[in-house]
Amino acid sequence: xxxxxxxxxxxxxxxxxxxxxxxxxxxxxxxxxxxxxxxxxxxxxxxxxxxxxxxxxxxxxxxxxxxxxxxxxxxxxxxxxxxxxxxxxxxxxxxxxxxxxxxxxxxxxxxxxxxxxxxxxxxxxxxxxxxxxxxxxxxxxxxxxxxxxxxxxxxxxxxxxxxxxxxxxxxxxxxxxxxxxxxxxxxxxxxxxxxxxxxxxxxxxxxxxxxxxxxxxxxxxxxxxxxxxxxxxxxxxxxxxxxxxxxxxxxxxxxxxxxxxxxxxxxxxxxxxxxxxxxxxxxxxxxxxxxxxxxxxxxxxxxxxxxxxxxxxxxxxxxxxxxxxxxxxxxxxxxxxxxxxxxxxxxxxxxxxxxxxxxxxxxxxxxxxxxxxxxxxxxxxxxxxxxxxxxxxxxxxxxxxxxxxxxxxxxxxxxxxxxxxxxxxxxxxxxxxxxxxxxxxxxxxxxxxxxxxxxxxxxxxxxxxxxxxxxxxxxxxxxxxxxxxxxxxxxxxxxxxxxxxxxxxxxxxxxxxxxxxxxxxxxxxxxxxxxxxxxxxxxxxxxxxxxxxxxxxxxxxxxxxxxxxxxxxxxxxxxxxxxxxxxxxxxxxxxxxxxxxxxxxxxxxxxxxxxxxxxxxxxxxxxxxxxxxxxxxxxxxxxxxxxxxxxxxxxxxxxxxxxxxxxxxxxxxxxxxxxxxxxxxxxxxxxxxxxxxxxxxxxxxxxxxxxxxxxxxxxxxxxxxxxxxxxxxxxxxxxxxxxxxxxxxxxxxxxxxxxxxxxxxxxxxxxxxxxxxxxxxxxxxxxxxxxxxxxxxxxxxxxxxxxxxxxxxxxxxxxxxxxxxxxxxxxxxxxxxxxxxxxxxxxxxxxxxxxxxxxxxxxxxxxxxxxxxxxxxxxxxxxxxxxxxxxxxxxxxxxxxxxxxxxxxxxxxxxxxxxxxxxxxxxxxxxxxxxxxxxxxxxxxxxxxxxxxxxxxxxxxxxxxxxxxxxxxxxxxxxxxxxxxxxxxxxxxxxxxxxxxxxxxxxxxxxxxxxxxxxxxxxxxxxxxxxxxxxxxxxxxxxxxxxxxxxxxxxxxxxxxxxxxxxxxxxxxxxxxxxxxxxxxxxxxxxxxxxxxxxxxxxxxxxxxxxxxxxxxxxxxxxxxxxxxxxxxxxxxxxxxxxxxxxxxxxxxxxxxxxxxxxxxxxxxxxxxxxxxxx
Length: 1175
Known about the structure:
Shape: elongated
Strand content: 35-45%
Number of strands: 74
Number of helices: 5
Oligomer: single chain
Radius of gyration: 39 Å
Largest sheet: 11 strands, antiparallel
Protein name: EF-hand domain-containing protein
InterPro entries: EF_Hand_1_Ca_BS
Structural class: mainly beta
């Protein structure tokens, strides 16, 4: 006794230290990762399926229309016989969410059938019973139409589809028939027919007779029993001996043997039974007793409320057959079964089951049966006319799953298996190759799958735990319902105003937006990798490409969907990382922007609304981010009127950017490819009411020569702020308005607007104000700098020349290869009277500026003491050109004005290389790079404190909130002298419906990226899809390449909001087919793009997030709970210590502590005990 006590004490002492360590580790892992599944209205999968490949292929036309998750299939291998041959079953499953599910789904006992009987040329129509139709025998003269006659109820359901398929010993699909040539039944298999677990709703097992042993079913009959054109089957139990008083269940009915009875002559001829309908949570007895013949007509059929002595048919599909009784009359030999009809709905234990497909290529064969289980959430659904209550599942409650998924099972890892690209580089199907020299299970090798995993036999994983799946929340994604204000409405077509200058705004409703948050279990992987589930989104990846031999694997093009949907793998282990929005650390969130190849925005633009409208055909082809615009209000004059500027800003990422973008001084420059982040700015004139306005250079439009003041009758009357200077050594490129280095901002003048180079596009001449420079002073304008070297006299002592140095400023001064500014030549002398000098990259001439020498300076005089020079500098900007300043490229995609000589806005595009400088050697220019976590250069006013206009995610109330639609403005005639309140955005909340109400002073816009990467989950596969159009039974597999998959993660600053929360608008390259467009939206793509707002303070992913509660599945008996009080605590631990190191048969062994059920209580069980301690 003393030794035993010391041993027990030692175990407790050692284990206590360990258990708390393990328990603390377990508690640190309490949080789970979650995956959102978006659903919309009543959109689900086809019911029934009509394409035999539909239950398997995520790209099939009949697949669920909204998001769905494909599971790895399960394998059943014990005792299955198909057509008298040892076989197997493969069970497929997928799951989705329907917010407005119509219940019941299929045909029920209240419905009718209208049948057409054709006899020669005569056709008659009648409502007849199935029993009547079966007597007609010949389906060629009879067809029946389902006439629904039941009420429909709508609720939110989680739907799980299961497909039970026969496969042979080589794991290839095969077909079963019911009877052999000798008329014996020769197909037996596993099918969920029993409700054995009170903790789970609906079918959960195979045990029909409650003996604790699983029972198989027999295929009895295949055909079209109700002549509706769809395949039906009859399945049953094997014959079993049932004691009087015992029960047997089969799907939606239970039979209890009440007794055996004799006739008047003392012969046994009747068996009395009780029949129970089990569609609800508790069985419901139908009638009292029913007697069944032992001899002839020894059968009984039953429906929802009725029992009759007939063969089964649609209204009474369940049946019982009595074969004999035992000598002592205590047992009955009996068979129970049921007919399953494609398109029917039946109920078991408060769960609905819909027969979505019974498929076999021949009239009398079956390859698979697909059962659909829609489970209501949060509230039971009372289907009153059927007297059925569908039991609900609530948040954090394990979803019911059909076997074998609710049991320890064998899983086939068919998702995200290592492969090569030699068969298919893009998205496409791949076949398999027969290797008959291999062992049975490895005959068929999937092409291009790595050799260790290319057969099903090699991908089987045994003893996988039951899948514990639950949801934690549901709601609308508010970021999908937003707006973007102040898009140029050229012509004011949408506004109730007389002006032709107006704004429109875009009401955005990306659909679907309603989601349910699911937690899926972590599963083992055959390659120790990731990717346990395949997620298929309702959003479409338009730029995904097909493999060349794609069509060879498509049986029916009408059943195939292209372009492909977004597909990616999901794994609980890595599931917190979203495909768009992620938390970087506790204070920083990141937004991914995807790019692909050299896909970019149009260059140049041709549509005047293109720089503003995210749905415009010329907008960036891949992801881009729209920022809130800035307003510059001081000192701007347009056509001699006090005005303002509104500066728009958007950003995107091009992995293979062509540099340079536009035309340069070489007619055929070399093209260089690099990864660039592209910033685009549009400087627009707006009037005192903040409406768009256009300006001209002078009252007469354009001067004949803007550089000759003697020929200019009118003064320049449009001047504004434009980034023309480089003053900050810490920022690459243009960074200021300060042209003459005096620390003060300087305005830019519009000197002319015309097509200077006759290419059909608008160009402009820009110039500085007049400056008085001392000898030695410098002045800059865009890509050139001029320094006054001295003032010189002619031979008569008159001042007539000014000597200058001209510098090209395209390169950065720190650049080791092409340091800038770079002096062009030596000195140049310019006439004092109307002296004009022009300059290009390497040349200077005394000519008027042109495309090759677009920069210009003009000497207008010298001071009386010869100490100063009066000078103006400027430059031509050509639509479609690129120029360089301080190591940055600036392309000009648009200069727009509604009239030939007017300007409304100027758009400048700045592509910035990342991680490495780009040397444009034939131009002698180096583009300076920006690295990870480095603040990106932005043009003024964004690089300084400025006034931001909140145009994104502003509260609104439109007539139809369900539609993506443009709205205009209305004019408030009562505003009077309140200039800023004249024009209001329609349907925007009155607190924010004018620009003046949405302005905030904000600090400089600091944006950086954290890195770039490929989204590996977009490049994956799904193996073993049925390939039904082949003569041989075979599989194909789907190589998946969702594009774009290359992204850069950006960090954006938080900014104030006018009533909403979204600071930025991301327009994705992915499209949203179910987004509803109003008539005012006309876009070239087939579908509108997915758009959502982004708030840098909110790191919530669109699909994947961490922090979900970890919920254990319900169990009848809690392992480790010795005293049965449903908590594993110290009392249980003491008992565990007493059982430690015991084996089955020892007096101190207790199975409650044998967690792995291996017959002993050892350290493995101790680790599991620690995991549930205090649970």
